[in-house]
Amino acid sequence: MRIATIQWNDRETASLCLSRGLIPVPLLNQRLDTDWSSNMMEILTEGQLDEMVRWYSDVNLGEKIPGELEDCLIPEKLIEFAPLYRNPGKIWGIGLNYREHARDLSAPLPGRYPASFMKPSSAVIGPGDFIKIPLLSKRTTAEAELGIIIGKKVRNLKPARAMEAVAGFTCIIDVTAEDILKMNPRYLTLSKSFDSFFSFGPCLITRDELADPGKLRVATVVNGKVKAENEVSRMMFSPEEIISFHSRVMTLMPGDVISTGTPGAAVVSEGDVVTCRIDGFPVLSNRVFDLKKGR
Questions:
Q1: Are 92 and 68 in contact (CB under 8 A)?
Q2: Is the Cβ–Cβ distance between 168 and 44 less than 8 Å?
Q3: Which residues of 84-96 are buried (b: 16+ CB within 10 A; e: fewer)?
Q4: Which of 124, 153, 121, 206 is CA-nearest to residue 46?
Q5: Contact status, residue 199 vs residue 123, Cβ threshold 8 Å
Q6: In a domain, 246, yes or no
Q7: Both 208 and 145 in a single domain?
Q8: Which tens digit of pLDDT belongs to each residue from 240-262?
């Protein structure tokens, strides 16, 4: 199943993504006499996603649309997507998770543990929003990544059971003030935390639709040109290992996001369009605006 958050009736509203359009959850509730939340974060935290996936599978909605839902469809061309949700409890990022990317930066490879960092929810933006190069930075990079959305409260998971915690996957564009980071490695959090430095969406694809995430190819694309591309299977720490490790550090909660690392970053500037492209996912794109241009 695929689910997104869209602008609908002047609100950000969870909606099912189908081949012929999207159906806002409030319309589903009206037609099906259900009581699912129209807020994506609440769908995750209240455990409603599994129920929705079971219903979706039972009615075979991926293949056909019941007659009572036909007039609920909104064509995608009329849709304005929002971030999946605005306030993740935790956003984890993983640095240098592809050997090729580490070599590009002439950086030492992570050792025993993933090279983790955290980002604030105030950095969140959605599809089509502006990535804003901050006044403090003259060299900002953007990085396409596969995102993991946690769906259950978990602690101390073994890698073999890590996927049980996953609600689904999404596209992410992580942004870094690279010049600030190069001043001092202790500035990692600072360099990653500016407003607009974390875009995710446009949809969450539930884990049952992805038999093997390792086969996915992730590409950082700027102005239509692929800047870096790699396969998830080539990560130094697999999605299962990343989830397991972080669940041993702290309790993971529904709605937490883990950005699994980029095949490569690209320097961006005023007017660029950055895209995260992952096999089988709708693309995530953001325009770039340099705040220094407005001074």
A1: no
A2: no
A3: bbbebebbbbbbb
A4: 153
A5: no
A6: yes
A7: yes
A8: 999 999 999 999 999 999 999 99
